[in-house]
User: Fold this.
Amino acid sequence: MDLPSSTADSTTECACQYMTLVPRGLHFAITEWVQQRIPLHQSIWVSESEAYSHDDLTQESTSWRKHSVAVPIGTVHSQTKSDISIGYNSHRAVIWTKPGQHSYMWWQFATAEPASDVPNLRALGPVTALVGSWKLSPFPQRRIATLSEMAEAIHFCLRSDSYRKQQFPSALRIWRQVALSNWKSVSERVRDDSLFVDDLWLASTNTDNPGLKFRISCVRPDDPNYTRRDLIMAVANDLVPSSWTVDLKHYDVEIVLFLKEDDTDPCSHHFAVALALHPYQYLGCHSFSSGIVPPDVAPPYMTLTGIVRLRPSTAQLLLHLVGLKSGAVVLDPCVGIGTIAHECAYLKYVGLGGDIVLTPSLLGPQATTYSASIQNEQQRIAATLIAWDAANLPIRTAVATFGAE
Amino acid sequence: MRLLTHNSLKNNSAAAKGKGFPLKVTVAQIRVDEQDGIDDDTKISFIQGILPNLDWPALVAASQAMGIPTLPPALTEDLAENRVFLVALYHVLMNVHLVQGMLTCPVTGREFVVQNEIPNMVLEEEECEAVRF
Assistant:
């Protein structure tokens, strides 16, 4: 297929398209996890991991060849190249993803499943309704370097009939289904059918009535040439209908711009526009507004500011990789606030965990609150948590293998 | 803390010399989950898997302390194959929670507080000098 010289649109005509950010290394797990639950009509990893082969793992060599990524069976850390890890396959060929500031991959997928069901897939993390995804390659010899060059390339994508009449309205329909079905609170504007007509841009020009409220966020590696805010301001007018109004706090729709360099093409960027499907604005937590991946907000919604923990979505994928049978007991000796142990219930495992920080003076009260919300909001069995020293487990010897499967 | 959890907890301090089991249960507050949304086959499969590891006398004593006097004094083969009994046993082990209370070592009398369903089994430094490695 001949692609335009400046942009290439990788989205299809399917109305229900989504995008999420997946931790590197777990990308092969999430596809399998999701496919066991919903049928996928399309699955695209944008800017696939760089893959290298190395004839001998023990030798230093600068001769790296690129291949397509495959599932690694193990990883090692090179003493000679301390800035990378090496994943290898069964043939001892090296497969690796280049480390960078952002350790997430873009996963775009399409499914005919009801939109209200998709955000509830716990492994998906910060899933969004994908408006469109483009490859920006306006220059044959180099990447886009300046704000004006980037804005011009993005304008080309956004000022098209396809964006205004198909892509954006389609994504907005998905967003509205999710908001009305899943969010505990929405504004009256979201319930107003007149704000969700097919031709939003035309309707905006024919009315003085305000449309939805929105904010724009940008997820992009740091760039010394221009800030995320600069980019947002440069393209904001083309993103939404003119009747929509900006509100950085009490917004209806969060529009997220994703931008990154193409790992495999030195002359390209990847750019995507999507609508956030989790109600960060009602949860008191950071959304994409901080420029990085927002906190996991699969139910129960976690808003523990200042506490760093494993994402429930990542815990789901890790438990999936273990491949236990229903009813298995999973023991996490350093469970923290209980993330892995609590996620066990979704896979019909029994979660048991302990940590030295679960005493009443440390994280014990927060852990109890978390357990209670799991019990009450989701009616599922919370895991058993114990305050213990992992170096001195208070478990009788006869059950030392109790937690192992 | 579930009864299943209690059945595996012990005082691991040096003074207990490996005999800090079973812990005596003192109840201040209990919570019982009436419905757990788990089907009977899953419950039975789970119970059958853990039966060999259960310390039955310890379970009977702890359940009595938590207000469940109905467990039989011994687990017979007939009971171990009785579906109704196994489902009821699942309920006792998994759905009865000690919210506030105390666990006491039978050898040393060391008390472990259970607060908001979390038993604090963390030992002081001097209690575990002999077993740290």
